[in-house]
Specification:
Helices cover about 55% and strands about 10% of the residues. The protein has a four-stranded parallel β-sheet, with helices on both faces. The chain has two domains: about 10-130, 3-Layer(aba) Sandwich (Rossmann fold); about 130-163, no CATH class. It is of the alpha/beta class and about 160 residues long. The protein starts with 11 loop residues before the first helix and ends with a helix. The protein has seven helices and four strands; from the N terminus they run ααβαβαβαβαα. The protein has helices at about 10-15, 20-35, 50-60, 75-85, 100-115, 135, 140-160, and strands at about 40-45, 65-70, 90-95, 120-125.
């Protein structure tokens, strides 16, 4: 029994099916708008030295905007900036710890001073094993964390109707 030809294997079906042709043209149009939509923008990315932040910076830099990178890891940040600049992208960077207001202000000021504007800020910085959230985000000590857990557990029990 012969299998039906798939749309991807038989290009002739694209020309015969108006819905498939419409969807293909729409996809191409959206791709073009995405690439043109970021051109000449200034985009600040925190947490840019690795992971999603790094991938976002590389992807955006390929599409034409000026990227301003911030992260705690200066060596990785410098390497990423060299890679983007080597590929023809415009990049600026600064060591940034988002827990410190003055660092974030400096990063935004870098974008504004260097490129005279800021269009998008992607706050990608996260909390990982090297910065426990209970100590940094809330400023809680060991005793306070224990009290917070007990209070939270008490609240959950009362909400569930358990005493």
């Amino acid at each position: 029994m012969a299998s039906k030809p798939s749309i991807h294997r038989d290009q002739r079906l694209h020309r015969k099916d108006p819905l498939v042709e419409y969807r293909w043209k729409r996809t191409q149009c959206l791709k073009q708008n995405l690439m043109q939509g970021t051109k000449d923008k200034v985009i600040v990315i925190t947490g840019a030295s690795s992971g999603i932040g790094e991938a976002t910076a590389v992807m955006l830099a390929e599409r034409g905007p000026k990227v301003v990178l911030g992260a705690r890891g200066l060596e990785r940040l410098e390497g990423l900036a060299r890679r983007i600049a080597g590929a023809g992208g415009e990049v600026a960077y600064a060591q940034t710890d988002v827990r410190k207001r003055e660092d974030v202000t400096s990063l935004v000021n870098l974008a504004c001073e260097r490129y005279r504007k800021l269009d998008v800020l992607i706050n990608n910085a996260g909390i990982g094993p090297i910065s426990p959230w209970t100590t940094y985000a809330w400023g809680l000590g060991k005793h306070d964390r224990h009290q917070h857990k007990r209070c939270s557990l008490r609240h959950r029990r009362s909400a569930a109707g358990v005493s």
